[in-house]
Amino acid sequence: MNYDFLIDMACQEGLTVKEKPFQTYDGRIKGKNIYIRKDMTPTEKACVLAEELGHHYTTVGDILDQDVVGNRKQELRARLWAYNEQIGLRNIIRAYEAHLTEMYEVAEFLEVTPEFLSDALQCYRNKYSPYTTVDNYIIFFEPCLSAVKLI
Asked: Which end of the chain, C or N, has fewer beta carbons within 10 A?
């Protein structure tokens, strides 16, 4: 989803998205406000906003201290929400059906950054490896990402 769509989603949830000239982080959520670093591309902003929305839907309390195991778990849950919202297994299949094989092509097709896509694929690999099934497809994560349509 693009940045404008995610802003609309946030507004429907009663959240306000504000862009700030941050230097130390890309995004933060505090109460009903989401702050996004101003000097990023729209695609980068969309990836960050998706994660901050993930925090809105999945996180409880202040989790800034990532030395706390529970906080790390909540961070991963928020990221998984963002990965599913921005990419998802069905969109991996769509990229396969479009015959896209290079990471940058798939990222552009899905309107995410290559880094976000790489992180999402690693998360999916950790969760589903070596493969998972979706609709009439098997998505393999090991030894490399591939999809096979079932007959």
From this structure: C
Interatomic CA distance for residues 107 and 118, integer angstroms: 9
Confirm if 142 and 125 have CB atoms less than 8 A apart.
yes
Domain boundaries, the chain: 1-61, 87-151
**Calpha distance 69→123 (Å, rounded):** 17
Indicate if the pLDDT at residue 65 is higher than 90. no
Look at the alpha carbons of 59, 60, 65, 68 in this order and tell me if their dihedral is positive or negative. Answer: negative
Q: Could you give the C-alpha distances from 47 to 7, 84, 95, 145, in angstroms and in order?
A: 12, 11, 18, 21
Query: Residue 30: helix, strand or coil by DSSP?
Result: strand
Q: Distance (Å, rounded) from C-alpha 124 to C-alpha 146?
A: 13
Token digits of residue 35: 């702050």
Which tokens in the block code for residue 95? 């990229």
C-alpha to C-alpha distance for 52 and 151, rounded to whole angstroms: 39
Beta bridge partners of 133: 138
Percent with pLDDT over 90 in the chain: 85
Six-digit token string for 22: 């941050």
Give the global pTM.
0.93
